[in-house]
Structure formats: structure tokens, C-alpha cells
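User: two proteins, same treatment. go.

Assistant:
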Amino acid sequence: MSDLPALSGVALVTGAASGIGKEVAFSFAEGGCRGVVFADINHDAATAAAKESQSFAADAAYRALAVRVDVTDLQSVQDMVDLTVREFGRVYHSVNAAGIANLTATPTASTDFTHFNHVLDTNLKGTAHCIAIVAKAMLSQPPLTYTPPHRRGHTDPSSTALNTLPPRTLGRGAIINIGSIYSTLTRPSSLAYTASKHGVLGLTKAAALDHARDGIRVNVVCPGVTDTPMFRSVLDRYPAMQSAIARNVPWEGRMASTREVAAAVLWLCSRGASYVTGACLGVDGGVGLSHGGVKI
């Protein structure tokens, strides 16, 4: 049995060609969505991932669609959302996982602003593009409702216990942004990345407040060190981080798996999180409890 919550509808995931985004998209398929859009700047890899998801999708009518998107380009994002709505009718779940890592390790006084702008254009502005365009599409969708099943053991229609589970709205959709432990903390020589991920947390709170009355929930998942190809490239450059992870991560001294992060994303999209918006859900193994990140 899957450890993921049961879901339905259509999911749109950026950064779905690899890493956290790919695992999130796979988990939507495994969790029961009838359609998943694999969006990424690397269209070939997104296409391969979409094809792979067909083999374990839970819905017999499941359909996967690969789309090339450059999240730094507003028109590219608009085209992605338009295609999703045209092909599937609406967007139920939107996950913004496209992003880049801290590609340099220089102190603030030595900042390369070409690199700085590239990181913010992708991680911050790209996320803002996706939130805004998806939210606009969701505004045109009717809200969904959900009637919880009767509690086990209460089969008498006259039982007052049944009245404690009234129908509730699920809203027009859920938007989940992928932040980072550096959405709330920082480490030396990470000006651009810290600024971008702090910004993603701010975007989440602002959008959640703007659209709560519209029935659009917006939340952010903030992973710590996660076993992704992007982070593996960082480890290749800084091998001392392997031992630093073992020393500094309270939970088992290890990286998170992408599946552990995806499970948090799917919960925020599920019925169980119907009253959660504007939240920052850390998936960091406890790193944020006592110090700022993994120190080499």
C-alpha cells in the first residue's frame, strides 16, 4: 500500500524532469491523479519522466503530458498553464519545483551579480510567475466540495456524531512552492540563494493572504539537504559536506529522500490539509532546530 495520500484531479509540476519535482510528479500519478503535467526547461527529460509515470499510475484513465517551460519567461509560463487547462479542463494542484542551487560560494562583498540575477530570476521571479498565472486560472474554476464519510461505528442516521462531519469546501486549488531550509536560515557565502528562498517564503504568505477568500490555498515546503542530482553536484564540489551532514542533521545524520519531500507536498494538496494555507512545512530532519544549516 502506498504511503501517499489519495488524490484526484490534475497536477501541474515545474522542475519535473529531475530531483524533487520529478518525484512529486511521480507521486501524484501514484496517488491517483488522472493527469499530471511534467513541465521543465529540459523537454526531453520531462518527456522521459512522463512516459515512465505511466507504468505506476493508480488511475486507469491516467494521462501524462510533458511541456517545455522556462519559468523566467512570463509568456512561457502562460503558455504552460493555457495548455494544461486546454488539455485537462482545470488545474487542481500546482507545484513550483523549478529552481537552481547556490552555484558559487563567495562572500557578499565578492558577489557576482550576473550569477545573483540568474538565481533570483529562476528561483524567485520564476516562482512568482507560476503562482500568479496559475492563481488566475484557478479563479475561473468552481470550488470543489467534499463530504467526509461517516465515522466507523456510527451507522444510526439519528446519531449526533454524524453531524460533526459536515460537507466542506476544498476550494479552487492548491499551490505548493518548494522553498528550502534557507527560506528561514542562511549559511556563509550564499547571498543569492538565501535571498531567493527567503523570497519564496514571502511570496507564499502574500499569495495565500490575497487568495484565501477565493478558495486557493498556497503553502511552501522547505526541505533541508535532499538527495537530488542538483545536491549531488554540490557534494562533488564540496565533499566535506558528506561528513558535515552526518554530524549536523539530527534525524539519523542523513539526507532526505525525494520521496519524503514529495509526501509532504502531497499532504498539503490533500483533503487533510483543507484548512492549511500560508504555512511553511519544514522537511529538514531537525537541522533548523538549533543552527543555520549544514556547516562544513
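Protein 2:
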Amino acid sequence: MSFPKGFLWGGATAANQYEGGWNEGGKGPSTADMLTNGTHTTPRKITRTWEDGLYYPNHTASDFYHHYKEDIALMGEMGFKVFRMSIAWSRIFPKGVEEEPNEEGLRFYDEVFDELHKQGMEPLVTISHYESPFYLTEKYNGWASRELVDLYVKYCNVIFNRYKDKVKYWLTFNEINCGTMPLGGYLGLGILNEGTTDFMNQKDDPQLRFQGLHHQFIASAKAVKLGHEINPDFKIGCMIAFMTSYPYSCNPKDVLKCQKEMQMGNYYCGDVQVRGEYPYFAKQYWKENNIQIQMEEGDEALLKEGTVDFYSFSYYMTNCVSTDPDLEGIGGNLIGGVKNPYLKASDWGWQIDPDGLRYTLNELYARYQVPLMVVENGLGAFDKLEEGNKVHDSYRIDYLREHIKCMEEAIEDGVDLIGYTPWGCIDLVSASTGEMGKRYGFVYVDSDDYGNGSFNRYKKDSFTWYKKVIASNGEDLE
């Protein structure tokens, strides 16, 4: 058997896209709560106040806040060994600056973790998943200010101590490398520059973004050190949106451009969090883009001391890189590229490449030599609820089957892969567009793009299939 004994099979969600209850239990507004819905062609808007006539999908999301016992029971029925979720920072510190945490918020997660353990699952908790208290954006312009480092560490101190006997696996920031891209200014860093309303086309300031990333690196390193002091058994990882790229051709210009995109898109952040130092190519990038990173005394030592225990990442697709401006482009997860003629694509145009996952796992393990987890992977599709509340999603089964096969091959190659949590294991709203119609789950949530519906849960065909996969530890994929 290729998958090791104790392999962590499960599924993944995020509080801002799944939890709902945005103004209940003492929770304050988060950056995600200020995003309107969007569509394939209409981008989400960022508003500083809630505007009448606009719909904010993260406010209700999939309503896990009121359905958590039912949802966790469904995960238990599938046989999950681990459930990746996030804690909403603004549920613990509504503004982010309070001296004392919100006890009602803390109790909610106590109950969630207790339910998970009843079902035999380990929580895998992302501490900050594309959200922070919106007050911190208003007061400090988010992570552009170093003030957020101590506020984040205070938040970590509370949850590490509160849940030290309930949570073993932690991730400091979700897809931290989105901060290397303009979209990540607000999404990952909470930076809202003057004049920005269009989520997909933000007023960008690379200096603020990369300084904000440095602050997150420092916060992550401090959190790792603190977590290990509170409980030496904690396993604390990084999380990268891995965007695998291939040169479109053997033109050396394509190869060099692809190499540079892989460096800045994927390895810039991973090197800091795993190796404990900025990579050699960072200084040249800073110089070319007029970026001056302000470091305090002791920052470099702190990065070395606060390296992560394991590397986790999301993988959805690959793209090609070319210097030819006339080639057909594609959309995708955070970043696009050139269409690969050898691959098919999803309903959203994301190219499907299981072999790319094996390639990625080998590249990562060769570079870092630490345990790896695939904590997001899946197929966003238009699912149809048919008679008898059935969803026949053979296309999702096909997608996941082929990716699991390639993970197995990577393990046979010698990669230390310890877990797999497909994204959106129960339907949730899209981070990029706010749509519910872009569905990933094994469980269908009866809600549309505007929050209309019963919010009843219905098992898809993939539910039964994934249950069988887990029970066989990845051997029965039919």
C-alpha cells in the first residue's frame, strides 16, 4: 500500500467562506464581510460600509455556524481523519485591538473541536484565512503596519492556550504568497489603498504589499516559536498557493520567464517560512521594483528561529508561460497564463493536470525535505440537484481519482506526503467571485448565489465514493 498508515484523509473549508453568523456571538466584521458578490464577468466590490441593495455572501455563507453538528457528522460518516478549518479572528477579537477575547467566540470553537473529536477527527486550523478584523484595515491599513504583528501574536497566544489539548495541527496564514500579487493586497493583507473598490483590480502599491508580507513572515515566526513553547507537540505549517508553471516552448526566453514566475510566485514565501531566510533572488526583485523592506533588529534571527514543521499547499491547476503576446490566455487560481493544448479545463477555464501534482510534490520535497500536505485541491463545477435530491458528479470523482493516483505515485517516488484535504468538502462560497454556484463539495448545500434556499445538506455521488477511498486508504478508487 502506497499511502502510509495514519495518512490524514479529510476535507478543507475556511470560516469566511463557510461559517456565516457574521454578526452573531459577538463577532466583529472582517475584511471578507465587506466584499459583495460577483459573477464570472462581474468582479466583487469592496465597500467600507454595508450598502443597501448589495449582497454580501460571506455574511451567511453555508451557515456552518448553525449547522456544525450536522456537517461534522457528515464528515465523520465519510471517515475523515482530519478537518481543515479556520478560526475567524474577528470572532475572537472583534476589532483585533481588545485587551480581552470574546468568550462566546472561544466557546463556539470549543464546541466545534469537541464535535470533531467525537467523530474521530483531528482539526487542522488555519489561524488567518483570507480575513482579519476590518477595524485593523481602517485603523492601520492592515498588514502594511507592523502594529498587526503583536495583535496577531496576542490572538495566537489566546487560541494556542485555549485549544492546546484540542488542536495539534496549525497553519499560520492561508496562501500567504498571494501577497506577492496585486489581488493579495486586500485578500491576504487587508490593505485597502485609496480609491480601491474593484476587488480584482485594486489600486496597487508593491512597496506596501511586500512590507506587509514581511510583517506576516515575522508574525508567523513568532507564532511558531510561541506555539512550540505552549505545546511542544504542536505541528505548525505554512500554506502556499502553489501555481505550477511550464515553459510554453523550449524557447530559452520562455524557460527563463517561467523560472522567474515560479521563483516569485511560489518559492519566495516558502523559502522564508521553511528555510528561515529570504531567497537569493529577492534582492534583485526588490531592486527592479523599487521595494525597500524595512527590517527591525533581530528580524533575520527570528525568521531562522521560527521555521515551520511542515509545508502545506493548494493545487488546482497548472499554466504555461510564454513571451509570445499573441497566444491564448487562461484564467485560474489567483494567476492566469497561456493555454496548454494538452489539457482539458473546468467550467471556470482552470486547466486540469493531475500529473502536475506529482511533478509539484517532487519539486517541493526536493527543495525543502519536510513533510508535505495537499490542503486544497478540487473541481469547481455547476452541480445540478436532481429528483430525489441527488447530485451525480462523476466529473468530480474523475478529477479527484486522477489526482489521488498521482499523489500515490509521488509517495512511491519517495515524497513524504502526510495528508490530503480536498477543498470545499461541503459547498461554500467562492473567494474570488462570492458565488455559491461554483461548487466543490461532497455535500450539496441548498443555497444559491444570493443566499436563497433551505440550506439543507444533500450527499452527492462523490460522498459515497470518497468514503470508500478513505476506508481503503486510497487503494479503492473505482
